[in-house]
Design goal:
9% strand; alpha+beta; elongated; 270 residues; 4-stranded antiparallel β-sheet
């Protein structure tokens, strides 16, 4: 016995809702992510999503009232959620955003690589050289003039713009540079996108000195001047460890100038 006309219309509507909703969601996702539907991988994913939606539609059309209610309610919730919270889902997946986040993640990895090599240098050779000692010392007059090595500035002109002593002494084949590696002011470590290196000698007592001043040790600082990701959208992996060792009376002083800071101590020169 055929169902009455009204029931047929209800079943037809229930069948169409999930695939139509999935079509709308796929269109928005592809538009937001700037992905062409002609890519084979995209066609496969879209086909699977539509097949799933058609299956849900069939369950809603031919299942009992409870099944129909569950399927249509879930479809409505999904559609409304993506409609109102779409940017939260899609912004981080957009190609430009993915590239920015990849560069920021690389910055953190680069700094870890540099720090590991610097610690190996300290363990082997003792106190690391100050930038001025190998021709790379820059810095503005009011911000530790000549105490900084900047990855975006080859002050010595030797073709090794950043911490070249790690290369010449065999601790790295090449020191990583910031993916952008540009600054508008070659004397200021706080500007642009670059890595910076700074070292204080043992006994230096600005703002109480370093946390190891009583042990006669010096302190180095490595920093990423700026991430490209907005602060509110950065994952936990981009959170700066900070440097409470500089200075004792002004903990993490340099955190106000750089997006990511690490530091460490070293004994006096041997």
């Amino acid at each position: 016995m055929n169902p009455p006309g009204g029931a047929r219309h209800v079943r037809l509507a229930a069948f169409l809702v999930p695939p139509l909703a999935m079509t709308a969601l796929l269109y928005r996702a592809l538009s937001e992510l700037q992905i062409a539907l002609t890519h084979p991988e995209t066609l496969i994913v879209a086909g699977l999503c539509l097949a799933l939606a058609l299956g849900a539609g069939a369950a809603a059309a031919f299942g009992g009232p409870l099944v129909r209610t569950i399927v249509l309610s879930a479809t409505a919730v999904l559609l409304l959620d993506v409609t109102f919270h779409g940017p939260l889902y899609f912004d981080g997946l957009q190609p430009d955003v993915r590239r920015v986040r990849a560069r920021d993640a690389r910055r953190v990895r680069d700094l870890a690589t540099i720090r590991t090599a610097l610690e190996a240098y300290i363990a082997s050779r003792g106190a690391p050289p100050a930038p001025a000692a190998y021709g790379e010392g820059v810095g503005p007059r009011a911000f530790w003039q000549n105490w900084w090595d900047l990855s975006a500035v080859d002050q010595s002109g030797d073709g090794r713009p950043f911490m070249g002593f790690l290369v010449s002494d065999g601790f790295l084949p090449a020191v990583p540079l910031d993916p952008v590696n540009r600054t508008d002011d070659p004397t200021d470590p706080r500007l642009g996108h670059q890595y910076v290196y700074y070292v204080t000698p043992p006994g230096y007592d600005y703002a109480g000195g370093s946390c190891r001043i009583d042990q006669g040790e010096g302190t180095y600082l490595l920093a990423i001047t700026a991430f490209e990701s907005p602060a509110a959208a950065r994952p936990a992996g981009l959170r700066s460890p900070g440097c409470s060792c500089l200075w004792k009376d002004k903990p993490d002083f340099f955190g106000q100038y750089f997006d990511y800071v690490v530091c460490g101590s070293f004994p006096p020169s041997r």
